[in-house]
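Weekly modeling sync, notes
Attendees: AB, CL, MP (scribe)

Item 1: holo prediction request
CL wants a bound-state model with flavin-adenine dinucleotide before deciding which constructs to order. AB pointed out that an apo prediction alone won't tell us much about the pocket. Agreed to run with the ligand included and paste results into these notes for async review.

Input as submitted:
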Amino acid sequence: MIPPIANRFVAGEGPAQALEHVQRLNERNVAAIVNLLGEHYDERPPVRSDAGEYRALAGDIANSDLEACISVKPSQLGLDLGEDVFREELWGVVDAAAEHGVFVWIDMEDYTTTDATLDAFEELAREYGETGRSSSDQGSDAGVGLCVQANLKRTRADVERLADVPGKVRFVKGAYNEPADVAYQDSERINREYETLLEYAFEHYDGGIAVGSHDPAMIDRAIELHEQHGTDFEIQMLMGVRETAQYDLAEEYSVYQYVPYGDRWKSYFYRRVTERKENVWFALRAILGR
Ligand code: FAD
């Protein structure tokens, strides 16, 4: 069982608990991006097991009629074992999800994985087409999306490359400590880059822009750009972070909450708690029972 402090950030250990959480979100007009926690596998069995769980999850989402999609990590689907393993498992998950009409996001990991992830996404996006449908008879919400990171110096060029690729793009600031030759280190610089990327996307993309940020300044900028260009967008935030803002924004905009679950929750929880001092206090208060 997930202990009370961690269950602010993690929906539960199994898919049933995650989907119960999604149901509660949907009742407040917030959709969900469900992620099974797991990454950097160095052997095949956990890769196979997680890929199988994602395929089953897509079926569960479709059968329950929930507003939800899934998000996978490349190293969870075997990228550390080789690009061939990653592609085989990723295609298996996206095919199964498409049959159920469920959308699949591909998270972006550290800069050494960007090329393999981007190439796989581009191929899949072209296969699953403009409307998110592939040539076979699949549900209307099927399709793929990719996360791009504003801290990477290469991302401007990647975002231009993605302008004529179907599928959605999630813009985030970047969660990995990257070397200075490939990534901006200063948060002001990353914020400026994030805004520049959004400006490009709202001007050049047909839609499918996801603002993956809790930053009120970035969300306000996206709303301004949406009003200026009319381009469709959605706001994505993590479970346990600015949830009141998520519910408020959902009254006017499309909002998704990223909902992690699974028994590998400890390192994810640790990351959430340590990334902000307010979260450390929250955890300490909960431990002390105050
Ligand atoms: P920050 O720059 O951390 O903070 C800016 C402002 O936002 C703060 O000053 C505060 O006003 C507000 N804020 C931020 N956090 C909180 C909080 N806990 N409580 C209250 N206010 C807060 N990164 C990747 O590298 N790859 C991915 O695939 C990826 N996927 C993501 C998916 C989603 C849906 C989200 C939301 C993030 C994802 N990230 C991913 C993480 C991302 O890169 C950032 O590390 C993370 O979102 C923190 O940046 P930020 O833009 O939210 O705000």
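Recorded for review: The chain has a mean pLDDT of 92.
Action items: CL to compare against the apo run; MP to circulate these notes.
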